[in-house]
Amino acid sequence: MLSLPKKRSFHERTFTENVSSRGLRAITKRLWQPGAELLVTFAGEGIQRQASVAYCQRLKRKRFAVGLKLLMRVWEAQV
After folding, report:
1. I need a labelling partner for 73 at 20 to 30 A (CA). Which of 24, 42, 47, 57 fits?
2. What contacts 24, CB < 8 A, 6 or more positions away?
3. For the chain, what are the domain ranges?
4. How far apart are the first and last CA of the chain?
């Protein structure tokens, strides 16, 4: 799920691709600007991480692929 850190009222469930310890690619309904800061919540894991938008690519059917760089690796905070 993606949300805006300063606007807790905005949440969007997304489909993720290519997840790694440093980032991910998510399919979203919204156009995101590079550099925008988001909060990523990993469903089922109970893990939240801040991320910044690396790129946003327009897809078919009013969808976008957004590349997100995690500001802290997923496992770093679990140690």
Report:
1. 57
2. 16, 17, 18, 40, 51, 67, 68, 70
3. 2-78
4. 23
Please list the residues that pair with 58 across neighbouring strands: 64
pLDDT digit string, tens, across residues 36-57? 998 888 777 778 889 999 999 9
DSSP states along 15-68: EEES--SSEEEEEESS---TT-EEEEEETTTTEEEEEEEEEEEE-STT-EEEEE
- Where do we find the tokens 């059917």? 61
Tokens of 18: 């290519």
- pTM of the model as a whole: 0.80
β-strand pairing of 47-58 with 7-12: unpaired
Tokens found for residue 43: 């469903």
